[in-house]
Amino acid sequence: MLTANSLSIWQYLSAFPAMLAGRRHHRAALRIELAQLFEVEVGRIVLFDSGRAALAALLRLHGVQAGDEVIVPAFTCVVVPNQVPPTGAVLRFVDVGQGSLHFDWLALDAAITPRTRVVVVPHNFGIACEVPTWLREKHRQVRFVDDAAHGFASRCDGQWLGTYHDGAFFSFEYSKNLSGGIGGMALLPAGSALPATALPEVPCRDEWRLAATLKAHLLGARWPLLGRFAMAAVRRLGMVYRSGDGEVRDGEPHPPRAMPLLSAVLLRRQLPTLAAAIAHKQQLAARYQRALAALPQLQQWPAPAGTHWVRYPFALPFAVADKAALARRLSAASGLNIGVWFDDVIHPAGSCRHGYAAGSAPHGERLAASVLNLPMNIALPADVRLERKLARLVAALRTELK
Ligand SMILES: Cc1ncc(COP(=O)(O)O)c(C=O)c1O
């Protein structure tokens, strides 16, 4: 999968000498720069090794404990529900809306009980939404926490995603809006603070694995064949960095760690070019939207003008038995890297179900069986070659739709 969406090869290479300034320097500087971007106090920015660790911290901040309920969307990544059982709270899945990638507010209202303490609000693919005021006022005991893992620096009605509810968590993993290899951040609600704890550091060997894996992603986004060779070599050397099997398969919670030095430097490198990266992705989205509109059977979703897309989603009008195979066929036909997020209500397929009852979230299940997505990457020019690839994609989709 084509990732490292906003990272240039130069930014990657220049990160290594900059690492000499050390972890404390770069993390402190990154927090200041992020606080300036979001126009919040520095104390509200807390860095972690992952978005999931930031979510766990927010659940602690909001005092989630045994006897409470936490609602998560039934169209999400397994590492989100994974963070709930360790708090002792009951995990509940609530379906996404029929025509949206986030909650149907009336259905969410009906699902909230007096025991509900936190609702994790999805902003899938970077499309930011806002919980209606009436819903927040009706359920004053509930804290609405944004899952902004797909929408770093997305905006909704001119507001930065993550600043207008009760805190947010962001991800800087390879495939997200900004790539740190791994990395996460909590944006705390105004006036709150987390106890200052020294988190364990990511071992040095893992930082090298991150660097090796990222390099293969960067090459793959520019020269697919070279990228494949590079990834095969990284795999052979045992240098691929990815989520632990225990977390994905067995739903184990994540032991939180500090943001790696490499990630902090890479993120600092990407911030000055963020506006240009977002503008480029918005151009790609506009081209995708236009091209796919030739097939009105496909579902597309409206998005605020300030969306920082992580991938561009579209859905087929029927359930696809093997989405991965279809994505491979469409990728081969078009030359575009077609993705399958999410391939299950609890992504990835085969991961821990956390007691999810099949059939209880029909819209999430329909999406999981029908959504594909297109790449967002600064290395993908929005030019005439892209138009040709899109024309081939539309032709291939037309055949699939027959
Ligand atoms: C919707 C969503 N939320 C949260 C996360 C967790 O982010 P991280 O991998 O940084 O823990 C992911 C990760 O892929 C995700 O897709």
From TrEMBL:
Q: Which Pfam families match?
A: DegT_DnrJ_EryC1
Protein name stated in the entry? DegT/DnrJ/EryC1/StrS aminotransferase family protein
Q: Which family does it belong to?
A: Belongs to the DegT/DnrJ/EryC1 family.
Q: Which InterPro entries match?
A: DegT/StrS_aminotransferase, PyrdxlP-dep_Trfase, PyrdxlP-dep_Trfase_major, PyrdxlP-dep_Trfase_small
Write the record's keywords in alphabetical order, separated by commas: Pyridoxal phosphate
Q: Does the keyword Signal apply?
A: no
Residues spanning the membrane: none
What highest taxon heads this organism's lineage? Bacteria
Organism (species): Vogesella fluminis
